[in-house]
Amino acid sequence: MRLIIGIIVIFASVLGGYTMMGGKVLVLFQPYEFLVILGAAAGAFVIGNTGPVLKQCLGIFSTLFKGPKYNKEAYIELLGLQFSLFKLVQAKGILALEPHIESPDTSTIFAKFPKFAANHHAVEFTCDYLRMVTLGSNNVHEMDALMDEELETHHQENERVVAAIQALADGTPALGIVAAVLGVINTMGSISEPPAVLGHMIGGALVGTFFGVFIAYGFFGPMAQSLKNIYESEAKYLMSLKVGLLAHISGQVPVMAIEFARKGLMSEVRPTFAEIDQATADLTAAN
Questions:
Q1: Which residue, 75, 186, 206, 286, has fewest beta-carbon neighbours within 10 Å?
Q2: How many other β-carbons are positioned within 10 Å of the β-carbon of residue 264?
């Protein structure tokens, strides 16, 4: 909804202001100028990015429309999951985790937390590090460094997409100038035409500059920023998971481990202590 509203406001403001000053909207329809700009931008985009980045970019419109996945309810669920896992270890020992981390798809604990279970990065992250613990690795500092390395790699993979879209935004205005120059060259080749015809051709050429700047700063730039915010939200989700796991590995009791994980969250999505206390009490009662 936020994306749709933004697009409507952009078009309404630009085209509305243009028509109010007496401009004719049909003059802005220059398909050959659009072909030059968008075609060259697409070609440059393919040249400048690797196959995995191009493949990842195919899903960005779905990502932008959905927006950040993690609200307060998602974090309550995440902290509840961690509490359930840590409580199981406290009650039955670390080896009780094996059925859940070896087959997360059939885990009765993961099934209670569908948003978490649908996030394959979070599930894999959790299972991998708890598996290391079951195998005897309990050095907090080494685990911390390894987690940071994995999270940084995940961040870099997402940042490549943001950088690709931002590069598109940075280059499109220049491609608009290219289209405009080609339009002027075409106009100069028709210099013997009447002034009305030349005026129409020059106006069409200038549309190239307008269109390049318009889509760069009206769409591609904001898209890159929106993607960055969405990916940072996902990074914060995994960071909260990391903090909770490390607190557990260091020997904190379940309620304190999830408190560590809660403290690093953004204020707009951070559950209160009372909300988490109630959620964990409900989980304990259900079990």
A1: 286
A2: 13
